[in-house]
Automatic annotation (TrEMBL):
The keyword Transferase applies. Residues 29-430 form the Amidase domain. This is Aspartyl-tRNA(Asn)/glutamyl-tRNA(Gln) amidotransferase subunit A. The keyword Zinc does not apply. Keywords: Transferase. It comes from the Bacteria. One of its GO terms (molecular function) is transferase activity.
Amino acid sequence: MQSVAVPHRASATAIAAAVRGGRISARAVLEDHLARIAAHDGVFNCFTTLTTDRARDEADAVDAKIAAGGDAGPLAGVPVAVKNLYDIAGLPTRAGSKLYRDAAPAMADAPVLARLIDAGAVLLGALNMDEFAYGFTTENAHDGPTRNPHDVARSAGGSSGGSAAAVAAGFAPITLGSDTNGSIRLPAALCGVFGLKPTYGALDRCGTFPFVDSLDHLGPFARCPEDIARAFDVMRGVAPTPIGDAGEMRVATLGGWFAQQATPAALDAVRLVAAALGAQGEAVLPEAGRARAAAFCITAAEGGALHFEMLKTRAEEYDPATRPRLMAGALLPAHIVQAAQRFRAWFAAQAALLFERYDALLAPVTPCAAPLIGQARMMLGGKEVPVRPNLGLYTQPISFIGLPVVAVPVYAAGALPLGVQIITAPGREAVGLALAKRLEADGVTRAAVVP
């Protein structure tokens, strides 16, 4: 079992086992993490709010329950933190914005967060994000950028950048984010941690600030597949069970759109994972580029409609990077959105045909490693393109049809981390997690806390 001598480097599974077994107190685990945050978050800028008093009360309650001989839960003493679009009782739900800083405080935790706390977890606070989850870089005009723990000059990705960076920085072994077009998978890849975007609708989104109702997903980040699985089970209200054996799985690499424009390093990461899993050649998901375009249209239209009234009266208070996209989306003609929604059913059917032949499909998460903070343009496929929209080239077609994905980190010596998507059929998260566990056991994929 992993040592918890330095709790902020330990897995959630190891921490919970040590706390439940009386080898370390939940309060000691918490104080170690708080000290780590105090020492380093001034640089990384992951947290927008710390709930220190609440966390100490929760840790003390876990220790008291154990002292009384009770069951403190499968996440006993595990520090967690959430993207600041999750409701936290007693705090306004900011969603990365200036507009909601003085909003009425939430009356209760979001249900998925409440389940983590009921399972013994300890809440550290709320994490930085792109305003209203509309971005891929977590360069927030109101809260500042979250910096990548592997290179503080670079982006942590977004929109759940604070959540991914907090795991990589050793601030929390489990964090929660959201993913509309790639906002869990992308920061997980750039920060070198594991992330799960479950099947659309698998987790209760009540108590979270919406962005695009027909595309929004919730999910966890962690430093190992076992912790991802444990958090996911707790969040959906089932008893945590160990990840099963992957067995003989039919795996293919996605070609076509997913093999174009990426840097050689991003494609090498996919080849490494494919070789380790014995991938059976290449598969093509047709019209993936069109799916990405359709996802853009739906995102803009639904996001613009959600913010329409606020944009009419308080547009100047929006992040300048968010405001024009929401305003343009509010003006998008209805027939374009209708066409995008009609195409969605066809595209989902094409994916279903692939899953008759394969158990999992592999693709890059991002076309490149983390860009510099403030970088506006980059070279992809021999062309200069804007950074922000193009980081999600390979994630948008997948969330467009709600498929579950485990993002696994891949490191090359001396290089920044990259990520690979393990994509499975709806409801088959267990397959992706089993394959991720196999890759971890074989040393192909790993996550690590930065020094």
